[in-house]
Amino acid sequence: MKTRFRGASKYETAICAAISIFVFLCLWELAVRTTAVGLFISSPITVIGKTLRSIVEPLGTHTIQGHVLWSLSRVAVGFVVGSVAGVVVGVLMGWYRIFEAIVRPLFEVIRPIPPIAWIPLAILWFGLGESSKYFLIFLAVFSNVTMNAYSGARAVDQTLVGAAKMLGANNRQVFTSIVLPSCVPQIFAGLQIGLGSGWATVVAAEMVRSSEGVGWVITKGQDLNNPLQILVGIVGIGVIGYILAVLMRAIEAKLCVWSERGK
Amino acid sequence: MRKKIIECSRVSKEFTTDRGTVNVLQNIDLDVYENELLVLFGPGQCGKSTFINCMAGLDIATSGHVTVNGHKVEKPGPDRGVVYQRTALFPWLTVMGNVEYGPKCRGMGKKERREKAQYYIDLVGLTGFENAYPSKLSGGMQQRVGIARAYCNEPTVMFLDEPFGHLDAQTRYLMQEELIRIWEKEKRTIVFVTNNIEEAIYLADRIVLMTNCPSTLKAEYQIDLSRPRDYTTPEFLQLREEISAVVDKSI
């Protein structure tokens, strides 16, 4: 069974995905129509209809895609800064023993703190504007990317390092042409997790304080006692999260043709 | 008088682990001459790889010293090429990228190093695979890339550490033939490590026999059979018998 699924074509995989989503929606619809679940939650047809309608009818000041773009732009800033910093700190920490000895204890203390725990401090430090949201997303992305880049750099094959030195590479060349490319698959795993975590954090940050974005759509739905709007926000978050993950995998497959993860 | 390329004098190597000190090499003296194909032959785990690493500069002898072309070996360097048992190709580089890596590190211009790399890729018979990644190649082809990569740096000596150990029997015979073909076209001083007696006699100008740990050199055989050699001639079989009788069988 396993081997058969491994060998499944893209086409077959897509059909399986479509079937599982469709069956889930059917069960949901059925539950709403036939049981008391309908008292608490709208039917999927209503939710999808409302989501589609919100593409033209604004929720608050923006249409749904406007809110999504707001949230995405916040994630983009935090993600870019967080992943660059994460790759640099992680790889240096994994490759240079002294850097590891100094930085790792600090990092290990900060890493387990969930980004949302920083929300009150972020607001005190950066105010209610965009900077505090960038900061929170930065934290979410940074710790994941750092951790993965670090384990990647620690796992560099010493035989390859030896081979490079035998071929005449100096220390700088070993770092740029052996250590960095060796880490790329792990770095990508970190970016993948970091992006998911950043996307989750933006919603939390927007729920605390903002006047646009998918997080706002949800909190506003709660304030207005409008579960339908909440569900529209949730659908938006799920769909965008899924699209981001697919995009990341596509980029990874391009950059890591040589490795197992790229396949 | 032939020119000495490698001179090892009283080379010893100890490893210190949690369980104490292990003496791997003990006072080894060995000279290797220019363009000689020397085979280091001995039982498994006898310190052949350690010895080759000390000569290459990947490891440093605990006492004694090694010189290559008159220079003392203290660290890895491009005048010595290594071909590894498990290929050690850079998986993120194509065949071309791997072969041109050495010249690139040493700052050779793109056009020049590409030409040089292409020459060695052609020499090892991989024309047409320049843009393939190592993971897409068979074991024998990967080892050809390893040989081309070592050659392309134009080292004074090449160390081949059981390069065909992981290949299936058929491919192994073929690669032995190929190695001799390449070496006869582009003569280099080669130190080849193996634990396979047939391979040793097929390839060697001279075989040096190593004992079990702590290793010393036990015997030396000059192999004067004409090339290409045949595994089944009486002379070949007689040598095989003679050398086998002397090898340490204990594990």
Summary?
The complex is a heterodimer of chains A (263) and B (251). Chain A has 263 residues and is mostly helical.
Descriptive keywords:
heterodimer; A: 263 residues; mainly alpha; MetI-like fold; B: 251 residues; alpha/beta; Rossmann fold; six-stranded mixed beta sheet; four-stranded antiparallel beta sheet; 8 helices
> Helical content of chain A, roughly?
over 70%
* Total E-strand runs of chain B: 10
CATH hierarchy, class of the domain at 4-79 and 155-246 in chain B: Alpha Beta
Strand portion of chain A: under 5%
Strand/helix succession of chain B? EEEHEEEHHHHEHEHEEH
pLDDT under 50 segments of chain A (min length 5)? none
Structural class of chain A: mainly alpha
Number of domain units of chain A: 2
Specify the CATH class of the largest domain in chain A.
Answer: Mainly Alpha
How would you classify the helix and strand content of chain B by structural class? alpha/beta
Which outline of chain B best applies? globular
CATH domain topology of the domain at 4-79 and 155-246 in chain B:
Rossmann fold
**Largest β-sheet summary of chain B:** 6 strands, mixed
SS summary, helix count of chain A: 11
pLDDT averaged residue by residue of chain A: 89
Could you tell me the radius of gyration of chain B in angstroms? Answer: 18 Å
CATH homologous superfamily assignment of the domain at 4-79 and 155-246 in chain B: P-loop containing nucleotide triphosphate hydrolases
N- and C-termini, Cα separation of chain B:
39 Å
Under CATH, the homologous superfamily of the largest domain in chain A reads MetI-like
Largest chain interface and its two residue counts? Answer: A-B, 21 and 26 residues
